[in-house]
Amino acid sequence: MKTVKLNNGIEMPILGYGVYQVTPEECERCVLDALSVGYRSVDTAQAYFNEEGVGNAISKSGIPRNELFITTKVWISNAGYEKAKASIAESLRKLQSDYVDLLLIHQPFGDYYGTYRAMEEAYKAGKARAIGVSNFYPDRLVDLAECCEIKPAVNQVETHVFNQQIEPQRIMEEYGTRVMSWGPFAEGKNNFFTNELLKTIGEKYGKSVAQVALRYLIQRDVIVIPKSTHKERMIENMDVFDFSLSEEDMQAITTLDQKKSLFLSHTDPEIVKWMINMVKKEAVI
Does residue 34 contact residue 234 with C-beta atoms inside 8 Å? Predict the structure, then answer.
């Protein structure tokens, strides 16, 4: 498996398995399947309510913990130093591990400065091998990166062929922050799986639309975490290291970039209010 070096020297697999929208009931089975076919990086979050399933799978897999790379995220309802600190301990309990390999702030709302201080403390205590953020647009990333002690190693953001994050990636690189893609298949939006350009390119290499899309991001050094509950798709999503897209194909794919979210904008005041109000009504832990 190809790896990328994070800004603290830690090596992270460039391709992992994501469990967003995998139900708690299915999660253990899905992660065990993913590990059985060769995945060694798993991405979860407090808000996915399936950290325990990931922890159970890790325990049952028999794979040494130091051969795995586990990511989780602190949710908005746990924002602030004290709540974040307690939630990190709870995540480790659910994951049945003394540490996570990557710990992220899930959303740029609430007291995320306090959250990040708790994460820096966890990093120094060896409870997180690397720390970073998720869904931070360039302005918020720059603000945090300029003020914190430990620069974010990763920013997990919506990244796919229709929202390629090319300029934000350049800004992140100024701080040594890696782009990590959520939604690399755009969740099928914009007729992703039948896109004619991706299909035509795929036919040249004997690859699917999904494989071409993943390969495009990987060649840009974007970390990808495709999700599937089907073992055969997990295998297909891993089978992207035996070919390289030509420069011509890479350039052609850039023409698909719409440079905007297909889901929601974290800079839209109404979206911000909706998300914060939603969190006020519930607690993750």
Answer: yes
AA letter at 52: E
Using alpha carbons only, how large is the chain's radius of gyration in Å?
Answer: 18
What residues are annotated to the active site? 48
Q: Which residues of 43-58 are buried (b: 16+ CB within 10 A; e: fewer)?
A: bbbbbbebbbbbbbbb
The answer, as to whether pTM is greater than 0.85, is yes
Which ranges in the chain belong to alpha helices (H)? 24-36, 51-61, 81-95, 112-124, 138-147, 166-173, 196-205, 209-219, 231-238, 247-254, 269-280
Pick the CATH number of 3-280 from 3.40.50.1970, 3.20.20.100, 3.40.1180.10, 2.40.320.10: 3.20.20.100
> Would you list the domain boundaries of the chain?
3-280
For the chain (length 285 residues), average pLDDT per consecutive 10? 96 98 95 98 97 97 97 96 98 98 96 97 98 97 97 98 98 97 97 98 98 98 97 98 98 97 91 83 53
